[in-house]
Amino acid sequence: MALSENRREFLPSIFKDIPLSLHEAAFRGDVDTLKHLIDDCGLISNIDRHLIWSGGSIPCAPLLLAVIGGHVDCIKFLIHKGANVNCVDDRGQSPLYIAAVNRNLNCIQILLQAAAKPNGSAHNRCTPLFFATRDGEVDIMRELINHGADINSAVHLSPKLYPNTLINTPLYISVSYNKLDCFKLLLQSGANPNFNCKRLDERNRLQSFYGEVSLVLFALFIRYSEFAKLLVEFGADLSLFSCNETLGNSHLILNNPCALYFQMARANPRILQSACRLLIRRCLGVTRLNYINDLPLPKFLKNYLFYKPV
C-alpha cells in the first residue's frame, strides 16, 4: 500500500532526528515506512547501524531485525539498498544464523543468493548448519550445503575450561537428536564418518570417552543401529576400533545391536561395489561432490555415487 501524501509530509518531521526509526520499521515489517525513511528522509546512513531498538536488549542492524521478524519484503529492500548481509550483533549472530534458528527457508534462500556466508560468523561458536541439523530441517541443510557450508565444522564449546568435553560436528548433532535423514544427507554430502577416530588404549581411554569420542563409539553409546549401518556404508574405518579391546565386557556391549553389527562388519571385507564407490568419492573430495550431477554420466551412476537407488 502506497503512503498517503499526508503521511509523506508528516514522517520526515517525526523521524528526522530519531535514528531508531529505521530499526523499528524493519522490526515491524513496515516496508512502506522503510522505503520512505531511506528514499525520502535520508536515513540510508543508518542502514548498517547497530542500535538497541524498543523490543530488544542488544544492538542490531535493521537487516537483522527484519530477519528476526521474517519480513521478506523488508529483507529484499534492505539488501537492494546495500545492507551488509553478513553483519553480526554483539553475540556474533548473522542474519543467516538467525534465519536458521527461526527455521525460515525463504529468508535463508534470499540471504544466500545475496552472498551471505553459509557458515555464519567466525565470532559465533555455532553455525547455521548446526541449528538446521538439530531441528531436522533437511531442506535448509541442503540449501546451506549447496552454497558451501562446512559439513565437517567442529565446535568445542569450552576448549580451555573443559578440554575433555565432547567436540561437536553436524554429524554428532544429528545422532544426538536422532535425525536419521539429516545424518544421511551429511554423509552423502561428504561428512567425515571417521571424525575423532583413533586407536584407544588403557592410558587414554577415559579421555577418549569424553573429549574425543568417535562416531562409532558414540553410536554404541546410544544404540542407534540405523546410524551404525550408515556409518559402515559410508566408510567408517572399523580397523581403528574394536568393541572388545575398547570396552571389554562393558554393559555397552551386551545385547547391543550396534556392537554386533560393527563386529560383523569388521570381520568381513567390503564388497567391490562399495569399495569402488568410497574410493571415487574420496578422490573427488568434499568440495566437488556437488558437481557429480554435472558430469556426463548415466543417471544410475550418479545415483550410485550419491547412495541413491539405482
From TrEMBL:
InterPro entries reported for this sequence: Ank_repeat_dom-contain_49 (IPR051637), Ankyrin_rpt (IPR002110), Ankyrin_rpt-contain_sf (IPR036770), SOCS_box (IPR001496), SOCS_box-like_dom_sf (IPR036036)
Keywords: ANK repeat, Repeat
Pathway of action: Protein modification; protein ubiquitination
Keyword Repeat in record: yes
ANK repeats: 62-90, 91-123, 124-156, 169-198
GO BP term, example: protein ubiquitination
Superkingdom: Eukaryota
Annotated SOCS box domain residues: 253-310
Transmembrane segments: none
Keyword Transport appears in the UniProt entry: no
Name listed for the protein in its UniProt record: Ankyrin repeat and SOCS box protein 1-like
Biological classification of the source: Eukaryota, Metazoa, Chordata, Craniata, Vertebrata
Gene that this polypeptide is encoded by: LOC103183945
